[in-house]
TrEMBL record:
Alphabetized SUPFAM superfamilies for the sequence: Winged helix' DNA-binding domain
Domain HTH arsR-type: 1-94
Entry protein name: HTH arsR-type domain-containing protein
Native source species: Agrococcus citreus
Domain of life: Bacteria
Annotated segments matching region Disordered: 109-143
Skewed-composition ranges (Basic and acidic residues): 132-143
């Protein structure tokens, strides 16, 4: 598995795994020992340690050692880069969606104008028929 080298990639790599996200959720309520973090998971201690290493390299947690106990604590500021990236891209996508809405509105407006011009060119009797057909759309037919 390739190791991410830039900080943002490390953060998203760490967050991509549901086990690591569950560990972060647990740490949101306060520091925990490695044993406490490992408890809900059916995995070996080395696997837990590897997950914690990924979280630590991403800057999302810090591990400390007090005697024989190792504890972990959440570093909420570790998400700052990811949050900034998401906000920047959300703004860009929102701008694109706004432009798409404007384009679609212009196209719908052009189609309405084209229909009206066609009706004017075709004459009032055809236009009256089209107007009546437009009003009848969706109404049940009489039998």
């Amino acid at each position: 598995m390739p190791i991410a080298t830039d900080p943002l990639s490390r953060i998203f790599f760490a967050l991509a795994d549901p086990t690591r996200r569950a560990m972060l959720e647990r740490l949101a309520s306060g520091p925990a020992t490695v044993g406490e973090l490992a408890e809900p998971f059916a995995m070996s201690r080395p696997a837990v340690s590897q997950h914690l290493g990924v979280l630590e390299q991403a800057g999302l947690i810090e591990r400390t050692r007090q005697g024989q106990w190792r504890s972990c604590a959440l570093r909420p500021e570790g998400l700052d880069d990811a949050e900034a990236w998401v906000q920047q891209h959300r703004a860009a996508w929102q701008s694109r969606f706004d432009r798409l809405d404007e384009t679609l509105a212009a196209l719908v407006g052009d189609q309405s104008g084209a229909r009206a011009a066609h009706r004017r060119r075709a004459g009032a009797s055809v236009g009256d028929t089209n107007d009546q057909a437009d009003r009848d759309v969706g109404e049940p037919k009489e039998q």
